[in-house]
Write a structure and sequence with these properties.
Distance between the termini: 49 Å
CATH architecture of the largest domain: 3 Solenoid
Radius of gyration: 22 Å
Largest sheet: 16 strands, mixed
Helix content: 10-25%
Order of helices and strands: HEEEEEEEHEEEEEEEEEEEEEE
Shape: globular
Number of helices: 2
């Protein structure tokens, strides 16, 4: 029953997108020039002549709120950083004793909703926005909040948690320990060095740590996630599911345990 309902829902969604695309094509330049708005409770679908672009936004969002803006958020810094929103996040390690800072860029109605509390970055409220792009290659869908770009600078963050589908790039890292956790489909890349690395991936997330010089390393992948690591010390790898771990440098020792169809590749 659930499977049948899922098939019907997916088929209806695809059909709706096809009808919408056909209406835009039949309407031609007149439709695109004058624009077309369909209210959906608190949502609007706007069709404009801006590269045949279709925008989905909350009903309360006006043109000014969609303008690009940048905002600085005060942050005292911490040893742990948790990212609870889909955004392109960059962390750069500052010099010891330097202050911490967070800069957010993107559409104003999203930037104004970003808040930081106890090392957790999130969006206030539950509403969302998205884009439908109709091109010669088909229909592409993305969420407006994916357009957020966040730059974090701090001297002593040692633990990073990425929840959801965001991206995190850790740069110039040089600390004794590094703990990374991915929950969902997010992606983490990191560059620098650490004496002890602990990586946990739950879901379909990806971790590219090939540019990080790590000593003792522990990796646990649950699901279909992927990880690339460059360890030199004692290394332990656990995979539960169909995930894959690629080891690109030769560690002093390697212990691996795979439960499921996952794999551990030794490519040194």
């Amino acid at each position: 029953m659930i499977r049948n309902l899922t098939i019907v829902a997916v088929a209806s969604f695809v059909l709706a997108l096809g009808c919408f695309g056909g209406a835009a094509a039949l309407g031609g330049r007149e439709l695109l020039t004058r624009g077309w708005t369909i209210p959906m409770n608190d949502w609007h679908i706007d069709v404009s002549d801006d590269d045949d672009h279709v925008s989905i936004t909350p009903g309360g969002v006006n043109a000014g709120d969609r303008e690009e803006t940048t905002r600085q958020i005060a942050w005292a810094g911490a040893e742990a950083l948790q990212i609870d929103l889909p955004a392109d996040v960059t962390y750069t390690q500052a010099a010891p004793g330097a202050g911490a800072s967070i800069k957010v860029s993107g559409p104003r109605f999203l930037v104004d909703r970003v808040e930081v509390e106890n090392g957790r970055i999130r969006l206030k409220g539950d509403d969302d926005s998205g884009d439908i792009n109709v091109t010669g290659h088909g229909i592409q869908i993305s969420r407006g909040r994916d357009a957020l770009v966040i730059e974090v600078t701090a001297p002593a963050v040692r633990s990073f948690t990425l929840n959801g589908s965001g991206d995190l790039d850790v740069r110039a890292y040089d600390q004794p320990t590094l703990d990374l956790e991915i929950n969902g489909s997010g992606a983490i890349s990191a560059h620098g060095k650490t004496a002890k690395l602990d990586l946990q991936v739950s879901g379909s997330g990806e971790a590219d740590l090939g540019g990080r010089d790590a000593g003792d390393t522990k990796v646990a992948v649950a699901g279909s996630g992927e990880a690339k690591i460059a360890p030199h010390g004692a290394t332990e790898v656990e995979v539960a599911g169909s995930g894959e771990v690629e080891v690109i440098t030769k560690p002093t020792s390697l212990v691996s345990n795979v439960a499921g169809s996952g794999e551990v590749h030794q490519n040194w």
